[in-house]
C-alpha cells in the first residue's frame, strides 16, 4: 500500500467516525472540499461507493461499513505499535546489550546491578564480559566500556571515573626470595606472569614511561593467561610478578598480599569510557544507565 492510499483510508475512517465532512476535515487539518475530493478519488479507485452523502449528514454504504469493520482493528493495531515504540523512547524498558572487559564490569557495572534493577525493573541488562576489543555495532551491542585510548573516532564517549595506571606487583614472599627490580629492564631477570586478550595471539605489553616517553618491556615467564584475576592470584601465591591497573589491585596491596614496584615508572593514562554509536535517538534504557554511571563514577 502506498502512502497516499493509507492517508485516504484514514480520511475515510475519520468521516465515518464523525458522520460529518466538516468535523472530519477539522480533525485532519484539511478543508471540507479537499476531503470530499479525496473521498471521490478513493471511491473511483476502489470502484465502489463508500458513503451516502446528503446536505446535512454522511452515512456509510454497505461496502463502506464492511471496509470500516476491517480498518478499525488495523488502525488500533498501528496505534498500539506506536505506543510501544514511544515506551522505548520515554520509559526505560527492554533489553540493553553491553560488552565490557572483566575489570570494567567488576568496577563500574557490578556495583549498580541491584540499584539499577530496583529503579528500572522493566530493563534487562545483557552483559557480555570480554577483554577483547569488540566492534559494538557489528556485534549488535547498544554500548560498551573501553579504555579511552582504544575508542573509535565515530563513537560517542562518556568518561567514567578518573585516569588509571598500571603497576608491576608481586607477593612479599617472591620479593624476599628474588629481590625487587629497580628499573623496568630488570624485569627481564625475573619470573613474570603474562596476559593476553581473548581472541588475540599477542601478549599484552608491559608499558612504562621515562621522561614522558612510553616504552615496552617484553617480559617472560612460565604462565600466560587471558584472565587478569587469575594472573593476580598467581602473583599472590608467589609465582612471579604480574601487571595490572592499580585501582583493581588496591585491596590486595592494602592487605599486604601484593607489593607494588616501579611506581615512578608508571604514570597515569586515560581511564574507561562508556561508548555508543552516534545518533539522535538514544534508547531510554541506555540514557538511564549512563545517568546512573555518571552519578556513581563522576569523571575526574
Automatic annotation (TrEMBL):
GO MF entry, a single one: DNA-binding transcription factor activity
Pfam family, one: LysR_substrate
Domain of life of the organism encoding this protein: Bacteria
InterPro entries on file: LysR-type_TF_proteobact-type, LysR_HTH_N, LysR_subst-bd, WH-like_DNA-bd_sf, WH_DNA-bd_sf
Cited PROSITE patterns: HTH_LYSR
HTH lysR-type domain ranges (all copies): 1-61
One of the GO biological process terms: DNA-templated transcription
Residue stretches spanning the membrane: none
Keywords: DNA-binding, Transcription, Transcription regulation
Family stated for the protein in its record: Belongs to the LysR transcriptional regulatory family.
Name of the molecule in the record: LysR family transcriptional regulator
Annotated organism of origin: Cystobacter fuscus
Organism taxonomic ancestry: Bacteria, Pseudomonadati, Myxococcota, Myxococcia, Myxococcales
Amino acid at each position: 500500500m502506498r502512502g497516499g492510499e493509507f492517508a485516504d483510508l484514514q480520511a475515510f475512517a475519520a468521516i465515518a467516525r464523525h458522520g460529518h465532512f466538516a468535523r472530519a476535515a477539522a480533525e485532519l487539518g484539511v478543508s471540507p472540499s479537499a476531503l470530499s475530493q479525496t473521498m471521490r478519488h478513493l471511491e473511483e479507485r476502489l470502484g465502489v461507493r463508500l458513503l451516502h452523502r446528503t446536505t446535512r449528514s454522511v452515512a456509510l454504504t454497505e461496502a463502506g461499513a464492511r471496509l470500516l469493520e476491517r480498518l478499525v482493528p488495523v488502525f488500533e493495531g498501528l496505534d498500539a505499535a506506536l505506543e510501544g515504540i514511544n515506551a522505548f523512547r520515554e520509559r526505560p524498558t527492554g533489553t540493553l546489550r553491553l560488552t565490557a572487559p572483566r575489570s570494567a564490569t567488576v568496577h563500574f557495572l557490578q556495583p549498580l546491578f541491584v540499584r539499577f534493577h530496583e529503579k528500572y525493573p522493566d530493563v534487562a541488562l545483557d552483559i557480555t564480559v570480554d577483554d577483547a576489543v569488540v566492534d559494538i555495532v557489528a556485534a549488535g551491542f547498544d554500548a560498551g566500556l573501553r579504555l579511552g585510548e582504544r575508542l573509535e573516532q565515530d563513537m560517542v564517549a562518556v568518561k567514567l571515573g578518573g585516569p588509571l595506571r598500571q603497576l608491576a606487583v608481586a607477593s612479599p614472599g617472591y620479593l624476599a626470595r628474588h629481590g625487587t627490580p629497580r628499573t623496568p629492564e630488570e624485569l627481564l631477570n625475573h619470573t613474570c606472569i603474562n596476559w593476553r586478550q581473548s581472541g588475540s595471539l599477542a601478549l599484552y605489553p608491559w608499558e612504562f614511561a621515562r621522561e614522558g616517553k612510553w616504552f615496552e618491556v617484553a617480559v617472560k615467564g612460565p604462565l600466560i593467561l587471558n584472565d587478569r584475576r587469575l594472573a593476580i592470584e598467581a602473583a599472590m601465591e608467589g609465582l612471579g610478578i604480574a601487571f595490572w591497573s592499580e585501582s583493581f589491585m588496591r585491596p590486595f596491596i592494602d592487605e599486604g598480599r601484593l607489593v607494588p614496584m616501579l611506581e615512578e615508572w608508571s604514570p597515569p593514562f586515560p581511564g574507561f569510557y562508556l561508548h555508543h554509536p552516534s545518533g539522535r535517538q538514544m534508547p531510554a534504557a541506555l540514557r538511564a544507565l549512563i545517568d546512573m554511571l555518571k552519578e556513581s563514577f563522576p569523571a575526574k
